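Recall the central idea of this unit: under ordinary conditions, the amino acid sequence of a chain determines the structure it adopts. In this exercise we apply that idea directly, starting from the sequence alone.
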Amino acid sequence: MKSCGFPGVIGFVLLIAPLAAPAQADEILVSAAASLTEAFGEIGAAFSRTNPGTRVRFNYAASGALQQQIMQGAPVDVFASASPQEMDALQRANRLENATRADFAGNRLVLVAPRASRTKTMDALRSSLVRRVALSNPASVPSGRYARETLMRRNLWNAVQPKAVFGENVRQTLTYVMNGDVDAGFVFATDARAARGRVRTVTAAMGGKDHAPIRYPAAVVKNAPNAPAARRFVAFLRSAPAQAILRRHGFAPAPR
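Accordingly, the structure predicted from this sequence is:
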């Protein structure tokens, strides 16, 4: 797969935060998928209000990158992934605390384009007028895997692959579209919502038909520095206040 970076890319690009020290006794560190940035910022504040004295720190990046950090022993309390695959890998490696895993949200995959684009359908990606299509790296980013699965099921992958520009996380992919560096790109609906006014949603993929249902699981990491607060945070994600925040940011209920 080829990759492409553009000079001056700013805005939504997220880098993996350094994990130099474990969380203190009165705080937890939550490693969360980049697409959860705005929603989790609010949820963290709401959690702290109901758990006075407990601070929540966040480390946002691609789910695959966060999984690798945890596998290498990063002092993380909670992991929240944008797909089950990364969580499954940690569970197989015995890196999660038993009986703490829970699905807390769903999402949709959408094709977005710069505001001035005339792209109207997914099939238009075959056109020679569409020269660059952004999607996140399928090897480490759930939105990229869902995008590749959708393109393969719609017999578009062979046409799009030579045009593909791969982002290291979904927000970098979104930035390529916002900056007009590509003609179209695949992101989650919640990311498109966060950039409303700067990108145009062309169409949505059909979950369960174009790709596997999109589900977000969270779990307490084994040997978490602050396991009691981490368990409370994972439980809080399914509470009415947290679910209301997720809905406000465009997330769907967790698929059954």
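Residues 109-204 form a domain with the D-Maltodextrin-Binding Protein; domain 2 fold (CATH 3.40.190.10).
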